[in-house]
Design goal:
- This is ABM domain-containing protein.
- Pfam families: ABM.
- InterPro entries: ABM_dom, Dimeric_a/b-barrel.
- The chain has 97 residues and is α+β, with helices and mostly antiparallel strands.
- It has one domain: Alpha-Beta Plaits (2-Layer Sandwich), CATH 3.30.70.
- Helices cover 32% and strands 37% of the residues.
- It contains three helices and four strands; from the N terminus they run βαββααβ.
- The chain has a four-stranded antiparallel beta sheet.
- A hairpin with a 6-residue loop joins strand 2 and strand 3.
- Helix 1 runs antiparallel to helix 3.
- It is globular.
- The two termini are 13 Å apart.
């Protein structure tokens, strides 16, 4: 399994709107290989947070990242909220419980 973790900082005061748009844009979408998705807000920094997704394989995650929907819908809809600070990590899951 592969975990994709994106940390990002939003423009001040935009979290609630970002969360609403995130859910409207991504919730319930059938994406091949996607096993789960989480959005987490930093308890010490209300403008920062993490988007975490779990994938069956690296190939499934890469297919999503290179898809028309990701490029043409998800990125343009969500990226305007980001202040420019964000990093994405792609991790091989070694243990889960």
């Amino acid at each position: 399994m592969i975990m994709r973790i994106t940390w990002g900082k939003l423009y001040a005061g935009t979290w609630d709107e970002f969360e609403r748009v995130y859910k409207e844009t991504l919730a319930g979408k059938e994406i091949p290989g996607l096993k789960g998705r989480w959005l987490a807000r930093d308890v010490k920094d209300p403008d920062g947070g993490f988007a975490v997704s779990l994938w069956e394989s690296a190939e499934d995650m890469q297919a999503y990242e290179q898809s028309d929907a990701y490029r043409d819908m998800y990125l343009p809809t969500l990226s305007p909220f980001f202040s420019g600070e964000y990093t994405t990590y792609r991790c091989e899951v070694k243990y889960s419980q």
